[in-house]
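Aggregate trends can hide what the representation actually does to any particular protein. For completeness, the protein is quoted in full, as a sequence line and a line of structure tokens.
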Amino acid sequence: MLITTGADVAEQTRAYNQSLSKVLAAMPAHHEVDDPAASRAARARGEGAFPAPVTLPEGQDRTVPGRAGDVPVRVFTPPVVRGVYLHIHGGGWTLGTAAAQDVLLWRLAQAAELAVVSVDYRLAPEHPYPAGPDDCEDAARWLVAGAAREFGTDRLAIGGESAGAHLAVVTLLRLGDQAAAFRAAQLTFGAYDLSMTPSQRQWGELNLSLSTPIMAWFYDQFLPGTSAEERRRPDVSPLYADLSGLPPARFVVGTQDPLLDDTLFMAARWEAAGNGAVLEVVAEAAHGFLQFPLKVAERELAAQEEYLAKAVAG
């Protein structure tokens, strides 16, 4: 089912995009800095287009067992828990942390009555593929085995944004039959073909949080020394995987996102494989728009809360 939204407030969204592009054009992009550690530190200090992340006391830092050692997770437990949401953050497999979206995750936890477990997976280039996917899979298997014991419920959902959406799908595929433990997936502006879909290739230099050169740089960090054909392996680019037997999913992307094709193509293949799929395309929205002070962002956050709450209740 295709839903189009945001047309009534497209002028606000378009105006914000124009302002954002001017701000980002005056700063060096990630591929121009070419130093992930420096980019991470700058983000933590709030340098750039966005403020520093806010850390909330409601977040609890824990670890879960993994094949390469303990995997850090950040956990939010609201007063009422009706389900558990395994969240995977974005950042091009290179940036971001589980503690960088406390405000949004705590809001989700309370509104949807979900315990939220956000995975602090290992980042490239220090830890290239398959380190990050391994950590996410290990966290998911821990949750499948122990959610009822830890949180009092085995009603699970999974999701993430950008690289996090990619890792959520890869995790479900790796789980095999155990993917059935998850009742729903919330997949927000994800990358599903790391050899680049047409919209990725054709986007160009315009930086609205993402551009063609930035994506190419992220892929080189995550998958160093690999060819385009190697990047189409299903465990790397899940668009090419057998998607049968996966849970219902809600896909969201904006029309001004270089990853537009990734969501359009994946939603179609998801449904063709016999899985439930809802596709929502947001007028004029850019990559990462959930973090922007926009009406479409507020609407989308509320829609995600409603979708996930219903998924664990039904």
